[in-house]
């Protein structure tokens, strides 16, 4: 049976690990808030109304793509394209091509950044694997103007970071929603996690410190995984109403 992502791919390792996924979406949550097209997320109202629910919903789609056989993965990608087309029809406008690229670029970048933060440095070939998976996702969705190689992506990613981000009233409001839904303590943990994983441009626009307060405890967190106690830390970090979703983060689909 042919799979969209090879069973031996590092992409499966990245997206089968709950710790990595949480850091991917911590980073994406920070950068989403700065994106000049963030008003599209406010048009649907889903992200500000339930940012954690949106996170787990997105994880579900990503995993269908990463872990499913090819036909099912393509169906999931096509479903995402239909959903976006429906939103565009309701608003009577098109989501900018660069905004679609930005989302794919975030998934590529934070997949690499989160894994390297928690596990080890990836080889150039492994980084190219990550790029290739999401390039195929974007191509299937009909996203135009995608870079065709990992090297070209590095240049375009930096250009997008410089051109497509700004601190706006949407930025402030989204972070207010993060705090509202997480509570003060979990919100502070989110900010420190974001500080560790985001690119310098994102950190600068958000006024983050250069060093996270979580850095000294990262080793302790890794040790907790060795003793299979990291589920307890996830339960502390995320609200109790998401217990089932928290447990599913570390499930490796067949």
Descriptive report:
- The longest helix is centred in the first third of the chain and has 22 residues, at 70-91.
- The mean pLDDT is 87.
- Helix content is 72%, strand content 0%.
- The protein is globular, with a radius of gyration of 17 Å.
- With 254 residues, it is mainly alpha-helical.
Overall outline: globular
Mean pLDDT figure: 87
Structural class: mainly alpha
Number of helices: 15
| Helical coverage, percent range | over 70%
- Quaternary structure annotation: single chain
Order of helices and strands: HHHHHHHHHHHHHHH
Main sheet record: none
First-residue to last-residue Cα separation: 12 Å
- Using only CA atoms, what is the Rg? 17 Å
> What percent of residues are in strands?
under 5%
Total beta-strand segments: 0
Low-confidence stretches: none
Keywords:
254 residues; mainly alpha; 72% helix; globular
Secondary structure layout plus pairing:
Elements: H1 10-15, H2 18-34, H3 39-44, H4 46-49, H5 51-67, H6 70-91, H7 97-118, H8 124-141, H9 150-163, H10 169-182, H11 184-197, H12 200-206, H13 218-226, H14 230-237, H15 243-248
Would you summarize the structure shown here?
By secondary structure, the protein is an all-alpha fold.
